[in-house]
Amino acid sequence: MTTTRDELMARLWPASRRYLASYVLFNQAVADHLGMHPTDVQCLNLLTLEDGPVTTGRIAELTGLTSGSATRLVDRLARAGLVARQRDEADRRRVLVVVLPEALDRFGEVWRELSTDWVAAFAEDSEDELAFLLRHMNRTVELGHRQVARLAAMDSGLSSDAAEPGGAGESSDAAGPGAAGESSEAGEAGNCSTDG
Asked: What is the reported pTM?
């Protein structure tokens, strides 16, 4: 008997919730292993995907944090010896956040340990299936951006349309998370408004 689209969608909803929970719990385990806050782990992850040093404003955009919370996040990473602030050589008024080699070494060790199982999980997938997974992950990242903006709008009393990227109510502090699996960090970002 052929499974209908409605039946598949009904099964997809609880499966996606388990997937999300699994990733968030995995991120927590990595953070515990490194002695870090879960959102700080993903911030550092996102920084390593950027082309170079970025401003704190860009970190706010990547994580969905307010500018104040992003500043405190950078403070924590700097105290931990993972990032440093430096003046932009092209514009001395700008301060950039630089990931330190020690952080890359520390993260690299963990990811090297875990990467074998990650690669093995996709070993039997065809090129078409891998291409579909890539499209799916990119779609969920985009969805995460929109959902973070929607939640921020709900919290601030704005309409959801105003919070959409490019909408009238969007500020530089209201963008969503960026890295793969990062849609699962949307809920995490809201827990980072303190130095905890």
From this structure: 0.73
